[in-house]
Specification:
With 241 residues, the chain is α+β, with helices and mostly antiparallel strands. It folds into 2 domains: 2-109 and 233-239, Alpha-Beta Plaits; 121-212, no CATH class. It has 6 helices and 12 strands. The protein has helices at residues 18-31, 75-83, 106-109, 123-128, 136-147, 195-205; strands at residues 2-9, 48-50, 59-68, 90-97, 110-119, 153-157, 162-166, 171-177, 180-186, 215-226, 229-232, 238-239. The strands form 2 sheets. Strands 1, 2, 3, 4, 5, 8, 9, 10, 11 and 12 form a 10-stranded mixed β-sheet that branches.
Amino acid sequence: MKIRIRFAKRGTMRFIGHLDIMRYFQKSMRRAHVDICYSQGFSPHQIMSFASPLGIGLTSEGEYMDIEVNSSESSKAMIRRLNEVMAEGMEILSWVRLPEEGKTNAMANIAAADYRVTLHGTAVQELTRSERAASGAEIAALWESFLEQKEIMIHKVTKKNEMDVDIRPLIFDASCKGDTFTLRLSSGSVQNLKPEAVMEAFFAWAGAILPEHALSICRLDMFALREEKLVSLEFLGEVIA
């Protein structure tokens, strides 16, 4: 049986890297006595995969992992069992059964992700290039003008090469309220846009410098594309009664 688990990563857990999170959940499955399936061979391991690694320092309300189990209680019971062994800052939010057929792998299905970005420290002052903080209306006006551009070019450096990339088509939706921005960005293995890149481009366009550690970023959810509509990865499965 294929299961998709949605979980939140908050507080100090944002400083725990992806590999440590994997090991943490492997231990948690054993502690919660989840009837998880193991691979075959000389070194069996739990059948478990994650949708998309979360950068260190980011929090999330919409992380996903897929597992295979031999048996399962109700979704409500499994959520309770796992949350009983979770550390502070980690919370299981949903447990759904995935269809046995079709492309259900979370990592392969990601098309977009939602983020909430909040400015801290002197970042708001930088936008006005003065000692006073920009008002919510000023930030919103700047943001609207920034998004009205037909192209938003950034310089991207990879291990293999460097290139200029237009990220405007990868920003599916974006809004601003005060010092908080909500972004829906292209995500996945084909085209992946990080919220940090968007904010750096915004500040550069405004002629401002984005201070270090000025962004608080939370990933809210991840989506798959189904019949030309974005659907939360959670809703690709069904709750077990």
